[in-house]
Amino acid sequence: MPAPATTKEWRIRPLKRGDREAAFRLLASEGWVVPAQDQEAVLSWVVQHPELESFVAHDSLSYTRLWGMITMSHRPQLRLGGRVASIDLFLVAPEHRHRGIGHDLLLQALQRAEALACKRVEMMLPEPRDERHAFFESYGFANNGNDLYIRKVTPLAVR
After folding, report:
1. Residue-wise pLDDT tens digits, 150-159
2. Would you identify the CATH topology of the domain 10-152?
3. Which of 28, 77, 107, 126 could make a disulfide contact with 84, Cβ separation 3.0–4.6 Å?
């Protein structure tokens, strides 16, 4: 089935094993360098793990040109009486920020958390406060006082 027509310059899709070079290049651009000898195994674990969801934003003209990535883990938690999701990685290449890519990646993860019946979504944001805090707060995340930002999973209103 063909993809729906869109005017966006990017598409969102699941992370694939074939994304190794582009994914680790994107991570390295943000200072997260994974040794080359570990990349294949790490990517394989992430892609195949049943409690991980990873999505990439890629250039709509090039399936392998990655502009952003989000990874969310999810697991059952007794004290919540259900599943909790954690955003473990969220990044958009600096030259592609403020265009809606981050919105689309986060929306994909939140929709997946809702589909998994997660009770909430958590993430850590470092201090000092910057534009990332306001971005996540605009989606309903709130600081619990320990730099852990939590968002209850509720049906999403389309923005």
Report:
1. 888 887 776 6
2. Aminopeptidase (3.40.630)
3. 77
